[in-house]
Amino acid sequence: MMKKNRIYIISTILLLLICLVIILFKTGVFHTANSVPKSDIFAVKDTSAITRIFIADMNGEYVLLSRRDGEWYVQDSILAQTPKIKDLLGIIHNVTLQQTVAKTAQSNINKMMSVNAIKVEIYQKAPKFTLFGIKFFNKERKTKTYYMGPATMDNMANFAILEGYDEPCIVYIPGFRGFITPFFSFRPIDWYNCDLFSTKITRIKTLTVQDFENPEESFIVEKSGPRFFSLFNGQHQPILDYDTIKLLDMLSEYRDLNYEQYISSMNQSTKDSVLQFNKFKTITLVDVNGQETRLDMYRKLEPDAMYLDAIIGMEDSDSDLPYNRDKFYAILNGHTKDMLQCQYYHFDRVNQPLSYFLKKQ
After folding, report:
1. Which of 107, 164, 237, 295 lies 20 to 30 A from 357 at CA?
2. Phi/psi at 28 (nearest 5 deg)?
């Protein structure tokens, strides 16, 4: 008898719990990751919880964007462009289902998407479900996977397929004129941050410029006050009489220096040769927090020597190599696998020799 009573009690409790869950679902108190309006099935509204975004094409090329300590990185190592990340998060937040594709066209759209689509995986720090505002089983999980296809005929929307949803769809961004595929680049170099130096003059602690072609033109700058700096030669001997305006003008340029492009097509033997023989200068900047940024600069060979004024250093007795006058290569913080290309035009004001700062006698 007691056993039967126990069974009745347990059954009653289970039925009450089931009824409670149903009521909570209907009243919106109980939420799961999938309980969103149909128009928002592609969107991720809480982009602040996104930890990783994986984007790949159908040929195996991919990029992994990951958030770490408030910063976004490409392939877990290279700082990403902040504006492009913001644009992408805005698209992910606002992408809206316009309509499903007509039944008669679904077969053709599926075939087209199978060879010409971009896969997008979104990972979030997300709960399994939320009850009364309390998050349960909160951890990083893949919350959304969809395939972004070509633009529609009017170029105002995109075909897309959401994993777990049966029909291909048309998606768009409300208020945005155009299609959204370009925001989902699967090429890592499209996401790289082009900043090399972004330190305000008041944040510079030391600056060391080592000139390998003319060692006597090397120099060191050290912070000695809020906006005061001391100048030393390459042997750290103080320079007492120098042009402070020129020095401050040069230091102020370090607030915004960037590279032109990432070099991905250089073969290894050419890269090894450049790294071994073509270094002409190293700039090392340390900010007031002790953060060090080092840029190694390398001459870019001009093998065809198409114009005579492209030749730098031809008059030197120890050099007979033609170098490009407009562009040079650079390595940031010793990452030799990442060869960068810069323009002399943007570096002219920081590439000055020590003699430039000395007052004319």
Report:
1. 295
2. 85, 10
Question: In whole angstroms, what is the distance from residue 188 CA to residue 192 CA?
Answer: 7
Query: Cα–Cα distance between 317 and 164 in angstroms, integer?
Result: 70
265/268 Cα distance (integer angstroms): 9
Is the dihedral angle over the CA atoms 129, 133, 136, 139 positive or is it negative? positive
Give the model confidence (pLDDT) of 46-89 as tens digits: 999 999 999 999 999 999 999 998 999 998 878 899 999 999 99
* Phi, psi torsion values for 210, nearest 5 degrees: -105, 120
Phi, psi of 113 (to 5 degrees): -70, -30
- DSSP string covering 263-315: E----HHHHHHHHHH-EEEEEEEEETT--EEEEEEEEEE-TT--SGGG--STT
H helices present in the chain, as ranges = 2-27, 82-94, 103-115, 244-252, 268-277, 344-347, 354-357
With vertex at residue 348, the alpha carbon angle to CA 346 and CA 349, rounded to the nearest 5 degrees, is 100
- The secondary element (H helix, E strand) that includes residue 64 is strand 62-68
Q: Token pair of 104, please?
A: 């008669």
Q: Measure CA of the first residue to CA of the last residue in the chain; give whole Å.
A: 113
Per-residue confidence at 251, pLDDT binned at 50, 70, 90? very high
Question: Which single residue is written with the structure tokens 């490409």?
Answer: 74
| Residue 300: both structure tokens together | 């870019």
156-191 burial code (b ≥16 CB/10 A, e <16): ebbbbbbeeeeebbbbbbeeeeebbbebbbbebeeb
Give the least confident one: 34-38, 114-118, 227-231, 320-324.
34-38
